[in-house]
Amino acid sequence: MAGGSERSGGTPGVDPRLLGSVFTGLSAGLLVLDPGGRILAANPRAEELLGRRAAAMAGEDAHELLHRGPGGTEIPRELCVLLAVAEHGRPAWGESDTFLTGDGKVLPVRWSAAPVTRDGRVLGLAVLFADIAGSSAPVGREAGRVDLLEDLAERLTLVGEVTEVLSETLDIEEALDRLGPLLVPQLADWVAVDLRTAEGDVRRVAVLGPKGRATALEAWRGPLPPPTSEFRSALARVLHGAEPVVIDAREMARLPDDPLAAVQAGFLRALGATSAAVVPLTSAREITGAMTAVRTVRDRPFTARELALLADIGHRAGVAIDNARLFGEQRDIATAMQHHLLTDLPQGRDLRLAARYQPAPAGSRVGGDWYDAFLLKDGTTALVIGDVIGHDLQAAARMAQLRNILRALAWDRGEPPAAVVARLDDAMAGLTDVPMATMVLAYVEGPAGGPWLLRWTSAGHPPPLLVAAAAGPAGGGAPGDGARYLEAGQGLLLGAGGDSGRRDGVERLPPGSTLLLFTDGLVEVPGADLGAGLERLRELGAGLAGRPLGKFCDGILRSVPSGSTDDTALLALRLPSA
Fold first, then answer.
1. Which of 327, 433, 342, 429 is CA-nearest to residue 390?
2. Which pLDDT does position 143 carry in this prediction?
3. Cα separation of 218 and 529, whole Å?
4. What SS3 state is found at 266?
5. CA–CA distance, 529 with 521 (Å, rounded to integer)
6. Looking at the predicted structure, is the pLDDT value of residue 378 above 60?
7. 261-279, pLDDT tens digit by residue?
8. What is the structure's pLDDT at 292?
9. How many Cβ atoms are within 10 Å of 5's Cβ, its own excluded?
10. How far apart are CA 143 and CA 148, in angstroms?
11. Residue 66 pLDDT > 80, yes or no?
12. For helices 172-183 and 304-341, what crossing angle results, to 10°?
């Protein structure tokens, strides 16, 4: 079967394996069209009848290329009954039409067409046709007329829905829960899914059945006996790479010859199975498990065509499961790396520090946001907040490079923050592959017991927020009074070509005040006003001023906007009261 690739408009891609199995032995021509009437695929019989290669027809308008009236005259598009199938979403057929062949001749044909739909929306057409002169059997009788095409359209729609459902989530349990209503009862009365674990064991992770099913049957979920290569049961063979198989009532009646077969036989008996199909869940890397589809109605065994459809679905599910596992492995590694890089904070008798990190709600759950705090040679406390572009493992690795270089530069010469960041900007281009980053480097200077002075510089980063000590019970004022942003010390972000004018901001820190450094995930939502986010944070900070530092940070982190797509880091410093 030759076919075109997936096209715009939501039309499902045509899987050659699925179509090849559906059309085995079909002596009529078959075309698959998109909603606009462009040809997506054609079977070998269509190529033969039309004298055209499928690859040459792909993407062509079927009406303009093929449809002709008596004597080969062109038919106005608005009079084309075939195209009306897509417009109205109803099957149709023609008893005496004409298609134009590749050598310019006209071919008298009978045809049937049915729409491929999803949620009431037409995604394409399946058109079955036969040569009137070359066949005494009408296309309607040969292929079950429109019934066969409606069945084909339903199956193509099902594959498209399964693909969409499996691609919408990287959570295996969620994917299987969504898969159940698509397969039951359309293809089977019950479906069981077994997955291989990292240790090589097999677990039955899902038993999917009809609405109102007896929940006791779902107790068959859990660990299964190991499927060693010596076992000859259908499930064991499929888990070891055998082809999909249909189990009939006679085979189900045989005594099981191994523990895995005994569990499977008991499961099928409990369901009252009359026919079962076992297919592998496969990916490019491995066999991730197996799927057992069960029917409980007599005289309705799984056919070879249905087995091929289930095998195709099993492959798609296997790829989705493998992707979810790879994502989980990467996420675990990245999360461990992120926590390792977010170091413990120095704590003294006077200055208190607290920090929080929240990964992005999507993606690998790790990114380029970071905080850091360390003591310089003279005892000054250095505070850092930064953001390297990206939300993945690469961003975390780049963040680690930048953090380590910054620590070395800050420790080396005892220079003010602006000079250190200028040298970091220069070193970043030569020693790292970090494209761009923002950050604040701040020094808290002063003797034990105060007074304290804040000296800081910003490389394109949101400004620090200084929150005054909480007012007493008689205090008043508008929301946000006592909290303000420190706007001085602003410079270009790192990687923008250097900033020769970097400067430090200087601010006296009042006793009992709280300094908050944060990344933009705390205040920024795509499409929303950044100024409103900053004002919201200022008011919140003032309202939390009287809370212990840890609870202050927790309250701030809970305010991350629901639409945020970024990871978030924050670092807070609390000075002792006078």
1. 433
2. 40
3. 49
4. helix
5. 13
6. yes
7. 899 999 999 889 999 999 9
8. 93
9. 10
10. 6
11. yes
12. 160
Note the maximum CA span of the chain. 104
Q: Alpha helix locations (H) across 233-385?
A: 234-239, 249-252, 259-271, 304-341
Cα–Cα distance, 42 to 1 (Å, whole number)? 7
Query: Which of these, 189, 225, 219, lies nearest to 206 by C-alpha position?
Result: 219
Alpha carbon separation from 196 to 122, 124, 204, 280, 541 (Å, rounded)? 38, 37, 9, 11, 49
Place of tokens 């980053």: 437
Distance (Å) of CA 110 to CA 54, 82, 94, 99, 135: 20, 12, 6, 10, 10
Encoded tokens for 329 = 């492995």
Q: What is the pTM of this model?
A: 0.53
Query: Tokens 């499927």 — which residue?
Result: 227
Q: Is the pLDDT of residue 72 over 80?
A: no
Q: Is the pLDDT score of 557 beyond 60?
A: yes
Q: Give the distance from CA 449 to its chain's centroid.
A: 52
Angle between helices 172-183 and 145-167 (to 10 degrees): 170
| CA–CA distance, 494 with 460 (Å, rounded to integer) | 8
- Answer for the pair 189, 168: CB distance below 8 angstroms, yes or no: no
R_g of the chain, CA atoms, integer Å: 33
287: β partners: 282
Q: How far apart are CA 215 and CA 6, in angstroms?
A: 40
Burial class (CB in 10 A: 0-12, 13-18, 19+), 203: middle
For strand 245-248 and strand 490-491, is the pairing parallel, antiparallel, or unpaired? unpaired
**pLDDT value for 371:** 92
pLDDT of residue 391 exceeding 70, the answer is: no
Amino acid identity for residue 41 in this structure: A
- Token code pair at residue 392: 């993945």
Q: Are 264 and 290 in contact (CB under 8 A)?
A: no
pLDDT at 473 over 50: no
What pLDDT is stored for residue 427 in this prediction? 93
pLDDT digits (tens, 9 = 90+) for 494-514: 998 888 889 999 999 999 999
215 to each of 177, 209, 219, 220, how far by Cα in Å? 15, 9, 7, 10
By the 8 A CB rule, do 561 and 528 touch?
A: yes
Q: What is the DSSP string of 153-165?
A: HHHHHHHHHHHHH
User: 441 forms bridges with which residues in the sheet?
Assistant: 384, 457
From start to end of 213-286, where are the E strands?
222-224, 245-248, 275-282
Q: Do 127 and 41 contact (CB within 8 A), yes or no?
A: no
Q: Contact 271/216 with Cβ under 8 angstroms?
A: no
Give me the half-sphere count of Cα atoms (radius 13 Å) on the Cβ side of residue 20. Answer: 8
What pLDDT score does 147 carry? 47
**345, 354 contact by CB (below 8 A):** yes
Q: What is the mean pLDDT of the chain?
A: 81
Confidence of residue 362 (pLDDT cuts 50, 70, 90): low
